[in-house]
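Might I ask for a little of your time on a matter of protein folding? What I wish to show you is a protein chain and, alongside it, a tokenised description of its three-dimensional fold. I should value your view on which stretches of the chain appear to form regular backbone elements. You will find the record immediately after this paragraph:
***
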Amino acid sequence: MVMNENNSIKMKWHRIVVLTVLCLFGFSLMATLAAPYKKKKRPKTDERVYLVHADELRYDQWGAVPGAQILKGKVHFTHAGSQLWCDSAYFFQVENSVEAFGHVRFKQGDTLSLTCDHADYNGAEQMMHARKNVVLKHRTQTLYTDSLDYDRMYSLAYFFEGGKLVDGKDRLVSDWGAYSTATREASFYYGVEMFSGKNHITTDTLHYDTRTQIAHVVGPSTIKSKGTIIHTTDAYTNSRTDRSQLFGRSTIVDGDKTITGDSLYHDNSNGDNNGYGNVIYVDKKNKNEMRANRLFYNEKTGYGYATDRALLLDYSQRDTLWMHADSMKIYTFNINTDSVYRKVHAFPHVRAYRQDVQAVCDSLVFNSLDSCMTMYRDPIAWNLNRQILGEEIKVYFADSTVRKAEVIEQALSVELVDAKDRFNQVSSKRMDAYFTDGAMRRTDAIGNVMTIYYNRDEKDSVLTELNYLETDTMRMFMSADRQLERIWASKATGTMYPITQVPPDKLKLPSFEWFDYIRPLDKNDIFEWRGKKSGSQLKKIQRREAPLQKFD
């Protein structure tokens, strides 16, 4: 019995010893792990303002400035790595502050200095209030003002009674502003103007980074540069590279030409202009516009292109012409000379609409040198009830009015004459149309000419006969109101059928097609591409090749 009790007591003591050793080990391990994470004490800095020198010092507890040491002559103070000189000063040693007068000069390190006529400095807050003829120099930047507060703790200088910042060739003025000596960034508000070389910016809010020479204007702003004027509400300009990034629906004005877009990028050094988002290019002199979601134009070379819902407007005539293509390009030759001319390329899926004329083709080129517009690959043009098509169509203008039109190869002219789908038709290898005051007065059909033409009763305009004619060359003359006056044909053969006895196979020419389902209906319909139905495309004709000459 006694033995069992002794064993039990030994086992309890053994457990106690083991637990004690484990706890001590755990405490020592925790202390070891926690040791590297002990917070280091912040080194103490001397925040007192010290007087280094003064030619004269006096103290009058009952004087005009009680509690101040009155200093005169070559006064010199130091505080936390900075130095201050002046002609005279009030030194409030208890408050740790200084009020300095006359030729005040403040220096902080090797990069910052400040001069003024009067200043007070609080050592506890590290705040200086400088007044009258204040000049703050920081590296290559110089700030001029009459009222400036400099916060050394946050490295910020504020001016609020007008100021001017000079940074190399850049000069900025405003009513109020702030400059950070840490980031070298400045903000200017109210009546802001920036002059940089030939650039002039006016705005109410401008942020300027002196390291990159990039200015950010916010709110209604105007940027003028070498004859170019920019209107914007949000823009970044780089005076070092002479480039601008414009946002918030900005406009660039260059003489008679303007570009407006959601985002614009302008390079004044090479004349490049890039636009994104509902971009509108307006040429007031030539009375036309180009619109797109993506547009580029170089004002020095006159080259540009537009894509993504590209649209060309021409309002030089009474009615506006609307033309759309997937992409458009403009080339300018002999720019800034009397012999300047331009070429406009539109491709593919070209669709155009004007009240009196509509057109569709795969690609189009307009050359202002000869005022010629050429349509390629299955071109079709409509005027009132008339349709004309061929392999290639050329239209010549005189003072923006159609002068002549040429339809080259597989030419077909179709005119709807009544509601019963009867058509006047002319097919030939080539067709030329001549216009006077915008009205077609003569048409020449050349090569394998085939025609179907309806005669009308002069009294009630009812159709009376159908004329079928084949010839090699035919010329038709029209009146100003589009009525046929006479026809001339060489070696013609034909037949006249009474309207009630027309054979079914004579109602339409072999090449007849009526593409009313392709015709643009209005200015909005030009964005909807509709191709020809299968089997209605122009036939591919094998051209004769010139014989090769052989030399023995």
